Amino acid sequence: MPGRIVFDGRLGEGAADIAAEFGAPAQTTAQHRPTPDSPLLPLAVLEAARSSLGPIQHLDLSAYEVPQAHFELGGEVGAQVALFLRKKLEAIAGGELAEEIRHARKAQAEIQRRLGSSQIHGAIRHALGEYFRSLEAWAAGAGLAGFARSVLGQLRVDGLEVGAGDLAFLLQNEPNGCQTGVLRESPSSVILWHTEEDREYPGLSRFDKLRLASFRVDGPGGPRTITAFVYPDLLPGPAFGWSGSSYAHAVDAFYLRPPGRNSGVAANAVTWVCLYLGGAFATADIARALAPFRDGYALSSISRTPAGLRGDVTELIADTVLSTALPETPGGSLFKVNTLSDQAVLAAPGLEDLRPARRRVLERRVVRTARALRALDPSEDRITGFSRLLSSRVGGEFAYANPSVKAHFLCRMTEKQAQIWVGPGPAIREDHFFAGAWSPDE
Questions:
Q1: 347: Cβ–Cβ under 8 A, 6 or more apart, which residues?
Q2: What phi and psi values does residue 7 have, to the nearest 5 degrees?
Q3: How many Å apart are CA 77 and CA 122, to the nearest integer?
Q4: Rg (CA), the chain
C-alpha cells in the first residue's frame, strides 16, 4: 500500500473553535453533564471517550480470497461476537427468539431467490453471491456453530436446529447511528464526511477494539482493495468504507418500527455489495435489484465515473428506494441524519418510529451543519474547514464530536485520486492537522 494510514485522530492546526461561529459560550468543566440543548460539550468528556477506545487496528486481509478474508475476520472478532450475541439473545423474549430466527431464515431465502433470478444483472448477482459466501465464512471463523451448540443446545425452530447461518443473519439486522454529508467542492473534486456513532448496550460495548479491515476483490473495473470500518458483529459495509480510489460511502440507519411486518434482505447486504462493485453501478440500481428490505438505511456515496464525479444519497426501506443526486454546482451539498426524507415518509408510511424530541435534536444537526457550511472560508482549503466541523463540540450529546462517536471519516475524491482521513472516537482539535493521509491504490 502506498503512503501510510495513521489513526490518532488529531485535527485542526490553529483553527478557531467552530462554536464561535454559532456564538456559543464555552462550558469546559468536566462535571458539566450535557443535554441535547447544551451549547458546548466539555473537552474532558471527549478525551475520556477516545482514550477508552484506543487506536484503530488495521487488518490487512488482502492476501486472501474474499471468503477466506472474511473467515480470518470472523476469527479476529469471534470472542466479541460471542459476548454481543449472548447479550442480544438475553434481550429477546423466549417467544420472540423463534420469530427472529424465522426472519433470519427468510433473509437467507430472499438472497438465494435473488441469486437465481435472471432479472438481476449478472455482476450484481455475482457480488451478492460473494456476500453470501463471505457471511458463511465469517460465521465459521467466528465460531457461531459452536456458540449455537453450547448456548442454545439443540434449540429447534419449525423442526430445524438453530445453526451458525441463522445466528449470522440474525446479527446482520443490527442497525447503527451516525451522520453524513457530501459536498461538491469544485467540478473536479467532491468531499464526503461522516461520524460513526453507536449508543452502547447496557452493560456491554459492541467494541472490544476499533478495526479497519482491507480485502482484495476482482470486480468490475479490475482488482482493487476495499477498506471498511468494522463492527465486530457485522460484515464490512454498514459504517463507512472505500473501494480503490474511485468509490467511497458512509451509512446512516433509520429509526424504524419492529421489522416483523417487513420481509426481505437485510440492508447491510446492499452496503457490502456496493463496496464490492465500487461505483460500477448506481447505488439506487443495486438497491432496486435487491429490494425489498427488512430494515432501512441512507447510503451516501461518491464515485469517479467516465461521466465525471458522482455523489448521491440513496434511501432504502422496505420496498422503497429513493435517490437524491449531489448538485453539479460547486458548493452544492447533501446532508443526512437518521430521519426519513419527506418523500420517503410518503412512500413508506407508518414505518418510521421517531419520537418528536429525538427528531428535534436530529433536525438541529442539519441546521448546525448548514450554518457551518455557509461559514466555510472560501480562501482556505476545505479540509481545514471540515477539520473544524468534525471536531465541533456544539450540540451536547449530538455534537459532531460526542462520546458516542467511534470513528470519524473524511474523503476528498478528485479526477485522479482519493485522499482518506480516519481517526478513532470523536475528533479532537489539537496541534496537528489530520495526522495521516492515505491515497489508496486502485
A1: 320, 322
A2: -120, 50
A3: 32
A4: 21
Highest mean pLDDT: which of 7-16, 69-78, 384-393? 69-78
The alpha carbon dihedral of 366, 258, 174, 37 has a sign of: positive
CA distance 295 to 4: 36
* 230 beta partners: 211
Q: Are 179 and 197 in contact (CB under 8 A)?
A: yes
Nearest C-alpha neighbor of 413 from the set 210, 190, 256: 190
Count of Cβ atoms closer than 10 Å to residue 102 Cβ: 15
Among 14-23, 100-109, 282-291, top mean pLDDT goes to: 282-291
Structure pTM? 0.89
Is the pLDDT at 1 greater than 60, yes or no? Answer: no
Q: Return the DSSP state at 416.
A: S
Average pLDDT, the chain: 86
How would you write 187-248 as a 3-class SS string? CCEEEEEEEEECCCECCECCCCCEEEEEEEEEECCEEEEEEEEECCCCCCCCCEEEECCCEE
Matching residue, cell 429447534: 156
The per-residue pLDDT for range 231-265, each reduced to its tens digit, is 999 999 999 999 999 999 999 999 988 754 557 89
CA dist 26 and 38 (Å) reads: 10
What is the mean pLDDT of the segment spanning 425-434? 70
CA 49/CA 52 separation, integer angstroms: 5
pLDDT of residue 177 exceeding 50: yes
Enumerate residues 6+ apart whose C-beta is below 8 A from 396. 34, 35, 36, 37, 38, 39, 41, 402
Strands (E), 231-341: 240-243, 247-253, 296-305, 308-317, 320-325, 333-336
Q: Which of 43, 55, 176, 36 is nearest to 425 (CA)?
A: 55
- Look at strands 56-60 and 333-336 and give their pairing: unpaired
What is d(CA 24, CA 379) in angstroms, rounded to the nearest whole number?
Answer: 24
Every domain of the chain and the residues it spans: 65-171
Residue identified by cell 477498506 is: 227
One-letter amino acid of 43: L
- Record the cell numbers describing residue 79, joined without a space: 470472542
| Residue 195 grid coordinates | 461520524
CA dihedral of 215, 218, 222, 228, whole degrees rounded to 10 = -30
- Strand spans (E) along 36-139: 56-60
Determine the CATH number of domain 65-171: 1.10.439
The answer, yes or no, to whether residue 304 has pLDDT greater than 70, is: yes
Position 341, amino acid? S
